[in-house]
Amino acid sequence: MKFHFSKKPSAPAPQPTEAQRASQRRALGAGAYASALGAIVLVVVILVNLVVQAIPTKYTEFDISNTGLFTLSETTVSMLKSLDKDVTAYYLGETGGEDANLTRLLDRYAGESSHFRWEQRDPALYPTFAAQYDAQEASNGSVILVCCENHAVVDSADLYEYDYSSYYTTGSVDMRFNAENALTTAVAQVTRDTSYTAYQLTGHGEAELGSDFTEVLTNAGVTLESLSLTTSAVPEDAAALILNAPQADLSEQDVEALRSYLDGGGRLLVTTSLLADTPNLDALLAEYGMTRQQGLLVETDANHFAYGYGGTYLLPELQSNDITSGVVDGMYVFAPVSQGILTGEATGTATAESATDETAGDSITHTTLLSTSSSAFSMLDYETATTIQQGENDPTGSFDVAVAAENSDTGARVVWINCANLLLDNINSAVSGGNAQFLGSVMNWMNGEENAAVIESKSMSADSLDVPAALIMPLGLIIVILLPLASLLVGVVISVVRRRR
Known about the structure:
The chain has helices at 18-54, 57-60, 74-81, 100-112, 167-170, 179-191, 211-219, 252-263, 279-286, 425-429, 434-446, 469-500; strands at residues 87-91, 116-120, 143-147, 150-154, 160-163, 174-177, 196-201, 222-227, 238-244, 267-271, 290-293, 296-298, 313-314, 317-318, 335-336, 340-343, 355-356, 364-371, 377-379, 400-407, 413-417, 458-459. By secondary structure, the chain is of the alpha+beta class.
């Protein structure tokens, strides 16, 4: 038996109506529009990000730190805007371990000048990069600044300072951000067009300048060389001579060489000791209207001597003038064991004002740089005294410790510091570098360079918020009870309203 099945012809598929086709077209058009709009928005977002990244960070990031850690000083901004040569800063930092404080600050520098840019160089990826700038010993986190053939290294240790003065009383250490001062000094160093050579005189038991002072001179564009007047004449390229605390007097030939150099417009920096007898040198200084005040200076004002040392460890007053303008405000200069300097017709006190010395000729002008308080005295019998007490004949007054003399006829400039210890590294470190800053400021004046203001480091210690005891309970009730209850009540109201809908 055979069965035959016949297939029933299927009904034709229903064709979409015109309304359905119109709906499909609208859906397809909406999808295409949404896709195109999404692509346009994505492109716009990318372009906006690129534009924002190109905008200097001072317009896109705001410094809300209480000490203005990332706000550049007027000194730095002015220097960056005046740059006419390209400066590149290479940050030697490990990828992923960058110092955010430093990179933000470098962004601010780059935002102020098109001639300044910075790049990161990971020492692990570029192990030999620092060596080409003689910075192979630079620690991780250091910055190398390069301009033309010049380069300078800012070590990571110079970016932060630590003040332990209150550690034994409060147990806290004040950490300060010194990066702007270090970077701005380095930028000035690599972009400087002029350089100078200063000669340290030898052969009389002089003290050699320590590293703190040679570094400051290097930053000021000064190269230091040694010179013996016994064997060599003063070189023609001598921008200045430094005679630092000679223990023996200069010979008449040496003095004549200095006199001839000064008559030609030379510059001389002298520090002297009350323990060294130097009549020939003193006679040369007298030609510029400056003589010794006999005795050892003793300060009775507690604000003008180092605490715990006594009145002979002077913290003299730093006079405000063009010569000292390179020392940051509020910084001390330390001058232990000093003598006074008399100028003009002074007979027992020294003035703190600039004056013209008629005894040395109307062409000589004196400017006081460092002076004691008006209550200081000069102890005449210090060699035999057993206590620091003022004698009947000991003069009282404000004594000059450092004086600058300038001859308007010849252009000669002489600075006399009557303290043999002022240019020692350990003395400088006691006042956080104030003595070195003083030397740099004086040398800039001698060479006719404008003193750049030293930028003060900024504390990174956040101010604590003290809540009055009377507000502790009310604030606790508000934060712990009232705010959670208010949040819960708002949630219940929103839930009830939604259910009723």
